[in-house]
Amino acid sequence: MSSDSRSVWTSAKNIYVGTVALTGTGAGVGALWGIVKGQGPVGYSFLMGTNWLCLSLPFFVVREAVLHHRQRLNPVYGRLNWKHRDSDDMLASVVGGSVVGGGLAFYTRGSLAVVGGGIVFGTLSAIAQFGFTQFRHARQEAAYELQNGEEQKASKKYMDFRNAPPREGTSFDDHGYDPLREFTQWAQKKIINKVGGVAVVDGGWVSPILNALDLEYRKRLNVKIDILERQISSLRTQLESKGIQIDNNN
User: Fold this and answer.
1) Which helix (H) or strand (E) holds 145?
2) What count of Cα atoms within 13 Å lies in the side-chain half-sphere of residue 207?
3) From CA 172, how far away is CA 206, in angstroms rounded?
4) CA 215 to CA 32: how far, in whole Å?
5) What are phi and psi of 248, to 5 degrees?
6) d(CA 67, CA 62)
7) What would the pLDDT profile of 194-214 be if each residue is shown by its tens digit?
8) What are phi and psi for residue 158, nearest 5 degrees?
9) Hey, is 149 helix, strand or coil?
10) Is 80 exceeded by the pLDDT of residue 173?
11) How many CB atoms lie under 10 A from the CB of residue 184?
12) What integer pLDDT is reported at residue 24 of this predicted model?
């Protein structure tokens, strides 16, 4: 008994909230339309708000009646309500829109327009329900990720060079954190993934470009150049001591 009364209370609340929301929306649109037409917002706001009230109230009543029936019927067939919520919401919205559309068409155009009005309003209700369902799913996924700390994993996709932790040196000229090197390594991984496994570091076609931006590579290159210059200077000294003249321009 308590579960049934709670379900009825939930349906009544949904009818009230939905009707008030659509009526307020209609009144707001009517007020804007009245301002655009230059005839004052009050009349158009009242007229459109009343029209939306007459349409939204029966729509939500029929919709909640279908949902209430479906939620009572699902356990009979061994189905869980939460697993069939999306399909039940879609069915209820389509039925509610079709009933309201058919009734409006019958009132304005006669019995021959009932089928067309039901199809049009049923389709519009299905589109609106699909958008609302996708929005609800997005909110649920965001709440799940927030609860399970997935936002921290998402934030790690973007490199924060300023807050990078210090690390031990891995080579003779590595003095800790190098933001330029970290960026080039990150860029290398991204390019490798994009071009399908090109050996960027070992002779790939983009290796000269990335190596020119790699601070560690440039430091190692400078050390090697300095060693070569020292060896050349030593060889020149040895040759000059033996009386062999060397042209410095060569």
Assistant:
1) helix 114-147
2) 9
3) 26
4) 61
5) -65, -20
6) 9
7) 554 444 444 444 555 555 555
8) -105, 130
9) coil
10) no
11) 22
12) 92
- Give SS3 for 202: coil
pTM: 0.54
Residue tagged 């000294």 (tokens): 237
Q: Are 47 and 30 in contact (CB under 8 A)?
A: yes
Q: Which two tokens stand for residue 77?
A: 């067939």
Greatest pairwise CA separation for the chain in angstroms: 119
- DSSP annotation of 35 reads H
How far is the C-alpha of 62 from the C-alpha of 16, rounded, in Å? 13
* Per-residue DSSP letter, 111: G
Q: Distance between CA atoms of 225 and 232, rounded to whole angstroms?
A: 10
Q: Which of 228, 182, 191 is nearest to 209 (CA)?
A: 191
Residue closest to 18 by CA, chosen among 110, 134, 97, 117: 97
Residue 32 identity: L
With bands split at pLDDT 50, 70 and 90, how would you rate the model's confidence at 167?
A: very low
What are the tokens at 137? 């799913």
What whole-number distance in Å separates Cα of residue 57 and Cα of residue 122? 16
Nearest alpha-carbon partner for 111 in 102, 120, 101, 98: 102
